[in-house]
Amino acid sequence: MRKVAILGIGQTKIDEHWEKSLREIGGAAAFAAMQDAGIEKVDTLFVGNMLAPIVNGQNQLGTFFADWIGLWKQEAVKIEAACASGAAAFRAALMAVASGEIDSALVIGVEKMTDKAGRDVTAALATAADADYEVEHGISFVGINALVMRRYMYEFGWKHEDFAQFSINAHANAMHNPYARLHEKITVEKFEKSSMVATPINLLDASPTGDGAAAIVIVPAEKVQRKPRIIVAASAASTDTIAVHSRKDPMFLQAAYTSSKRAYEMAGVTPKDIDLFELHDAFSIMAALSLEASGFAERGQGVRLALENKIGIGGEIPVCTRGGLKARGHPVGATGMYQLVEVIQQLRGECGKTQVDGAKIGMAQNIGGSGATILTHILKIDD
């Protein structure tokens, strides 16, 4: 397999883009990535998206975007893996380039979620859960996460306020990210007074959705001359039961453990070598579970990393350095691509006040459903 490197990146601000269509949002990120790469054509286009057929009434997104950005006659496909669609599309592109089948690929993660009422979007998101055994009984994703969080608090003795630092860290970092949706610092007091959504999860435990797109151009490493040259050191994917109640341990992300373990082995690194971790903090409980399953904390101790400020810029393992899902925003099918773009920005040294000093190895982990599909990527500077 060939070594694959990043040639270009692009992204749009996450917001409620009422005046922009799905094609305009995705196209803007694609054009930005190709401009950054210094190219006008690629061999293949991969699109990561979850909701367009339901929310936007648009399927066949591969050809939809190939037509819009001028990639006529080129191969183009859509990849769907719920909220992990962005990372899944990137992995598909990576395997195609690494295999030698193609020499360049453009990956777009895109989602436009404001075209429908909130209740309709919530119903669309629920299609990533088990329709027979979860959705049929009226439980939503926030409800599922609330049950997991309540059990976690009971088992390990944490209070709700102990989770506040995950959100505080994300919001503080998003203040310096022009592409983030929320530019507002929060405090423990504000966290505790926030409106309850599904006990114990409140509004500041949960990530906001929105419209947005992020894109990356990848090619064989020998074709990248810019410095630093950033390569994809590892790509791994794993699955668990789609329904949380079917798992041996609902408080352990087995797919995160498996995919991160494979990624570490592939990259020849350990958790101690990772300079930053863009984790999937759709809810604060997921941040704690991801840190534990990925080897950064013992079982039940992920919260302690946040309480002791070890997840901040300059900490033991900086997370959500550009705001994470919590403050940058969570346009579901695009989230995995935003995470990867942000790791690349860190390795390029482009993150200003949230730059992780001397960052050489970064990890991104994208979760689909309530931990049913998890992809872990490790990127590093190729010395």
Strand tally is 11
Percent helix among the residues? 25-40%
Shape: globular
Q: In which order are the strands of the major sheet placed?
A: 1-7-4-2-3
Secondary-structure-based class equals alpha/beta
What is the CATH topology descriptor of the domain at 4-118 and 209-223? Answer: Peroxisomal Thiolase, Chain A, domain 1
Portion in strands: 15-25%
Main sheet: strands, sense, barrel: 5 strands, mixed
Mean pLDDT: 97
Low-confidence stretches: none
Q: What is the C-level CATH assignment of the domain at 4-118 and 209-223? A: Alpha Beta
How are the SSEs ordered, and which strands pair?
Elements: E1 4-11, H1 22-37, E2 44-48, H2 52-56, H3 61-69, E3 75-79, H4 85-99, E4 105-111, H5 118-125, H6 141-156, H7 164-174, H8 188-193, E5 196-198, E6 201-202, E7 212-220, E8 230-239, H9 254-267, E9 276-278, H10 284-293, H11 302-307, H12 324-328, H13 335-348, E10 361-368, E11 373-381
Parallel strand pairs: 2-3, 2-4, 9-10
Antiparallel strand pairs: 1-7, 4-7, 5-6, 8-11, 10-11
Helix pairs in contact: 1-3, 4-13
